[in-house]
Design brief:
The chain is built from 8 helices and no strands. By secondary structure, it is mostly helical.
Length: about 220
């Protein structure tokens, strides 16, 4: 089970480092309903991860592995597609990175987060976690890797839960800081938001490129070998 947990860590970090979901939390914390909005957003985020992870795991488990937990040709082809997708996402992140002296621009819809309601926050969290193309690709890669570990059902559930927890650390942290500091959290959270806007694209490029390269290498090793 230990190696399986280690295999999930890079994918979870890739999800956790996404800047927009974290920035959305920070903006919600200074909306008209900070606690209820953030609680709903986090609930949607966790549910989105859990539902999509379960669906993917059910789909890839019979198709992607042999009885010994090794790649099948189908599983290798799927992993190759995931690897190529991650490399393309890394290229996109690099293209859209913030240049020195360039002002960061957030999506226009984020300007309305101050007026969001809990039900909308719930849907937004679910959309960010399970439906975003980067996260969906990372979840697919994580669950394919988990399926290949050939663990018992209880162990598989435990690894999925840990994957969701690790993927959620970044969106949970601002909420915890706000609950502890209240209005005094404005300065550190504002600093965090600015850092994410300035550096997250570069960090994500490196993470996605490494994950994509590793996935491509493993899949080619199976197909050629």
């Amino acid at each position: 089970m230990g190696p399986a947990i280690g295999d999930q860590l890079p994918f979870a970090i890739g999800i956790a480092l996404g800047p927009i979901p974290v920035i959305a939390v920070i903006l919600m914390l200074f909306s008209a309903r900070p606690v209820s909005n953030c609680a709903a957003y986090l609930t949607g985020w966790v549910c989105g991860l859990a539902i999509f992870s379960t669906i993917v795991l059910v789909v890839v488990n019979p198709a992607g592995t042999t009885g010994g937990g090794r790649d099948t040709p189908i599983g290798a082809i799927v992993r190759l597609a995931i690897g190529i997708g991650l490399v393309l996402l890394a290229w996109r992140e690099w293209r859209h990175r913030r240049r020195p002296g360039q002002k960061a621009e957030l999506p226009r819809w984020m300007n309305s987060i101050g007026n969001i309601r809990p039900f909308q926050a719930l849907g937004l969290g679910a959309a960010f976690s399970g439906l975003h193309i980067k996260n969906a690709t990372l979840i697919f890669g994580a669950m394919l890797t988990l399926a290949q570990a050939n663990l018992a059902r209880a162990q598989t559930v435990g690894v999925v839960v840990l994957f969701i927890v690790l993927s959620s650390v970044s969106v949970l942290a601002p909420f915890v800081v706000y609950l502890m500091l209240g209005e005094r959290a404005a300065k550190p959270l504002g600093t965090c938001k600015e850092w994410l806007e300035a550096n997250s694209a570069t960090v994500m490029t490196v993470v996605l490129l490494i994950l994509g390269t590793v996935a491509i290498g493993k899949s080619l090793g199976t197909l050629i070998g």
